[in-house]
């Protein structure tokens, strides 16, 4: 295959994966828009609560992401047993992780208060997190099944299940947040209950697909599911935990920025949440291409095809870089129009929040390209099962460079909220440079990057 064929194959595989991530993100956007119209304090609480949830979810999602490359390589070798063993233990580790993080979600209010958040905002956030603690196992197990089905060449099924959840989530939010159709008006708690129901429904649909699809039947995924495979579990733990910690390092940088933004008050925090979600929405495209890169590179890695691995990596990088130009232009050209969609125009605080969020969109536009490159680099490294050194590079970039830079610019240098975002740009730039250097700097005699 030449580069043109690799571009086509990566695009066709990545398109439904991009759609899946966008649909999943749009579920979160629906929650944010509805809570934003319910009130500013609940919106600020949702920004904090979702960040808190995401960082715990990311820590446990490494097993689902690790298994994607493992399955691709095992299928390339014709090893059906490895496919089944790895996926089962990804499900096991997801459930164990969910049980371990439930207490810190249940008692999240005191933790957020200790981090300097306003009491009412912390209380609303705890209400949301207590409900969503019971959505964690469904979320993580669904991610593992997403990886399984995508690696089997059926990402379109994952897309269909995720898109089907969009109208259900919107309807349940409308009912439970505002109290329509005879339902109680529960505000933030109602939004969490809607997400809880949708996550479990989606897991059921994915489990059915993983058992019944023709491509999946030969693997007998759920046969003796209750029987743990500790050898495979340890192997997947060693591969997946660094991925989870890498994601935590990145997510933690943004969560740290959320906490520091909360020190400025509810209005700057709400503006920050709006700008951050718009940036995260475009990031879903790069994440989908990154997943496709993991599968494509993992398949070439399993075959020992160094030339195919190199071309697959170039194709993913080019696709992501080309797309990054689109949101960059939109964020710089029409920021007020985009940020204004999130708030009730009748709210007296809305104009100030929209103006601040629009100013932050400048930085969101600037970091589109570097955010894309660090995401693609991580996907490529996962494809060759290189996870430990990238974890360390991510920690250095996000926690030792990005977050301190944001604090320094925002507070001692008095740049305020824009300073925090400039720090995020610095951290993402460092990650993109270091991770790309890691992938392309490790070459074997066949000309392709090799794992550690």
UniProtKB/TrEMBL annotation:
Main location: membrane
Protein name per its UniProtKB record: Multidrug-efflux transporter
CDD domains per record: MATE_NorM_like
Record membrane topology: Multi-pass membrane protein
Organism this protein belongs to: Paracoccus contaminans
Gene Ontology cellular component annotations, sorted alphabetically: plasma membrane
Keywords assigned by UniProt, alphabetized: Antiport, Cell membrane, Ion transport, Membrane, Transmembrane, Transmembrane helix, Transport
Cell location: Cell inner membrane
One annotated GO molecular function: antiporter activity
Pfam family, one: MatE
PANTHER family: FMN_FAD EXPORTER YEEO-RELATED, MULTIDRUG RESISTANCE PROTEIN NORM-RELATED
TM annotation in the entry: 43-68, 89-108, 128-150, 157-177, 197-216, 236-257, 269-289, 309-332, 352-370, 391-413, 419-437
Family matches, as InterPro entries: MATE_fam, MATE_MdtK, MdtK-like
Lineage of source species: Bacteria, Pseudomonadati, Pseudomonadota, Alphaproteobacteria, Rhodobacterales
One GO process term, biological-process aspect: monoatomic ion transport
